[in-house]
Amino acid sequence: MTNQTLADLLVLALLFIGNARFVFVNHSKKDSLSIAPFVGLFIAIVNIFVFTLSVENFFVFALAFLSAVWNFRSVLRMFSDVILDQYELKLILICSLNALFAALMIFAVIYFCPMSPKKNQLPVKQKTVLYSGNFQKGFSKLKEPFTVPSAKLYNFEPETESPAGRKIILFAPPETANSEIYKSFFCKLAYNGFSVYSLDFYSEINLASKKGADLKWIKRFLAIRQKIFDSDKYEQTQKSSDVISEKFWILLSLCKPTEKDTIFLVTDEDLSGSMQYISQKSFMKIFGSFDLAYIDDYTTKGFGPVENTEPVLGAVLGVQPDRSGYMSNHLGTVLTDFINTQMISGY
């Protein structure tokens, strides 16, 4: 299980215990367990900021919020040292429903549990580096504590370096995804001999007109909602967006290629034509580019292999959960074959 899954299960367990307390709490005691839904709500909020807002933790947060609201008076009585005589019938009914929903969501979270990070783990080197700065002034590694990062770089390397130079893949995730979703895909590429760089960029991106839309924890959620429910507007927004281009420019500066290295640009649904633009404008030679959205049997184009890494979103998109990592490996295999073919043909 992933850390996010465990965190969601912890929240749901607290909600279940807090709402089912009328079954086992001694009525001659203070209603101490009424605080459990509030602890669950606090953890649910922290989860959103740590793991970003997703379909799964949105529902967990919603249930935690409702449970806290209905138990607010009980908490006030507890802090007032009021001894519990009996539960009100209305509270019993509401808590019973909340406990039932919490139990059902526990089963749902387990059923939609994403692929384990250690599943099919390949022998590759990987690291992440946090940066502060912006596109105009440049980026520097995050060194001072309590500094909010502007970007997070993911780097995956094969275990052995090639003396002939690196085959570098620069990957710019779309706004509806992030690098975490593609980690198994990156591992497959690194295992196949590529140096992979991917970037999540947190600032100066505003897909929606609402305040706070450029914040890391909600930016992707808003983009997903727009792509699913208003795809035409999403496409129009992306066609005029410089986000993917900016990510590629930053990646080009951070990967530090040499003359021996070969650079490939890759993204997932390049609606803005960013790869062609970068290939034409870059002073560094770009050997080729590839859009994962052109893979026919890749059904969640623009969202990443979510059936492996985010099955709840996958279910919304109509794909079944898959913990085998098939799609992540398949994308890596198709891309590897494409690049090797291009290199052989000298394109």
Summarize this structure briefly.
This protein is an alpha/beta fold and 347 residues long.
Residue stretches low in confidence (pLDDT < 50, at least 5 long) are 204-213
* Anisotropy-based shape: elongated
SSE topology string: HHHHHEEEEHEHHHEHEHHH
Q: Quote the distance from N terminus to C terminus.
A: 42 Å
Structural classification: alpha/beta
Estimate the helix proportion, in percent: 40-55%
Number of domains: 2
Q: What is the alpha-carbon Rg in Å?
A: 24 Å
Count of alpha and pi helical runs: 13
Write the layout of secondary structure elements.
Elements (H helix, E strand, L loop, with lengths): L2 H17 L16 H16 L3 H16 L1 H8 L9 H23 L12 E11 L3 E4 L9 E8 L8 E6 L10 H9 L2 E8 L14 H14 L1 H9 L3 H13 L6 E6 L6 H8 L4 E6 L14 H4 L1 H6 L9 H20 L2
Parallel strand pairs: 4-5, 4-6, 6-7
Antiparallel strand pairs: 1-2, 1-3, 3-5
Helix pairs in contact: 1-2, 1-3, 1-5, 2-3, 3-5, 6-13, 7-8, 9-10
